[in-house]
């Protein structure tokens, strides 16, 4: 993938003041793109109209979900699917996805920004997984603040998985390190939920299943 080029669909996107393409999902508060913020209504628009989350154009047969290693355990994504080439480009070029030590800036976020539904792990996992499938299902998830339900996505069985770290294919060690560093957070959440023993047993099964998907 050394010669992987920007997809034409991404090249057609509007640019910010630094000349960077602005993904379709990015919010534009005060007329300027804020890469940290999702234009929330587009989650429903992308799902309803089968649009790529990154470029905004019509999706094809193959659906690619850029997700973190922890999402590989439960097959849940917080964002709609993208084209395969758009997702690969994001994994290679997006500063947050391609830079393991980068942290999301929380200062001066626009008003009204809310966290996605479900359990959110506030960390940069260092590794991103492109989960490619033919199917997915929407999941309406209640929010802890009592607001309108959020939308998550249960991804179908993978046709292909691609692991990236620092904008290049990830090694097995890098993937294992990322997964193992996030497991304590999931175990803690499982222990605090109802029926903790069942939750922990399910988590262990998910972990073993995910090990079959990592690079050899």
What do these coordinates show?
By secondary structure, this protein is α+β, with helices and mostly antiparallel strands. It has a domain of 143 residues. It contains seven helices and nine strands. The strands form three sheets. Strands 3-5-8-9 form a four-stranded antiparallel sheet. Helix 6 runs antiparallel to helix 7. The chain is globular and about 50 Å long. The two termini are 18 Å apart.
Task: Tell me briefly what this model is.
The protein has 216 residues and is α+β, with helices and mostly antiparallel strands.
**Percentage of helical residues?**
25-40%
From the alpha carbons, calculate the radius of gyration and give it in angstroms. 17 Å
Strand order of the largest sheet: 3-5-8-9
Main sheet characteristics: 4 strands, antiparallel
Q: DSSP strand (E) fraction?
A: 15-25%
Low-confidence stretches: none
Count of DSSP strands: 9
Helix count from the secondary structure assignment? 7
Shape: globular
- Structural class call reads alpha+beta
H/E series: HEEHEHEHHEEEEEHH
Distance between the termini: 18 Å
Instruction: Output mean pLDDT.
Output: 87
Summary tags:
single chain, 216 residues, alpha+beta, four-stranded antiparallel β-sheet, three-stranded antiparallel β-sheet
Q: What order do the helices and strands come in, and which of them pair?
A:
Blueprint: H1 8-11, E1 26-27, E2 34-38, H2 41-49, E3 63-67, H3 69-74, E4 76-77, H4 84-93, H5 95-98, E5 128-133, E6 136-141, E7 150-155, E8 160-165, E9 168-169, H6 172-192, H7 196-211
Antiparallel strand pairs: 1-2, 3-5, 4-7, 5-8, 6-7, 8-9
């Amino acid at each position: 993938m050394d010669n992987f080029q920007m997809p034409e669909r991404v090249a057609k996107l509007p640019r910010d003041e630094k000349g960077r393409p602005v993904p379709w999902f990015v919010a534009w508060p005060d007329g300027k793109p804020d890469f940290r913020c999702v234009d929330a209504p587009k989650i429903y628009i992308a799902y309803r109209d089968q649009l790529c989350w990154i470029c905004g154009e019509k999706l094809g047969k193959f659906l690619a979900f850029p997700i973190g290693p922890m999402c590989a355990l439960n097959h849940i994504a917080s964002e709609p699917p993208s084209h395969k080439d758009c997702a690969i480009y994001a994994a290679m070029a997006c500063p947050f996805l391609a830079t393991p030590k980068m942290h999301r800036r929380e200062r001066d976020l626009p008003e009204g920004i809310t966290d996605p539904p479900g359990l959110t792990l506030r960390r940069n996992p260092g590794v991103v997984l492109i989960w490619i499938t033919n199917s997915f299902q929407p999941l309406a998830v209640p929010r802890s603040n009592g607001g309108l339900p959020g939308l998550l996505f249960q991804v179908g069985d993978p046709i292909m998985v691609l692991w990236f770290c620092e904008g290049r294919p990830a090694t097995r060690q890098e993937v294992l390190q990322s997964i193992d560093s996030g497991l304590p957070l999931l175990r803690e959440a499982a222990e605090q939920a109802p029926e903790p023993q069942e939750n922990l047993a399910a988590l262990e099964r998910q972990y073993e299943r995910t090990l079959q998907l990592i690079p050899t």
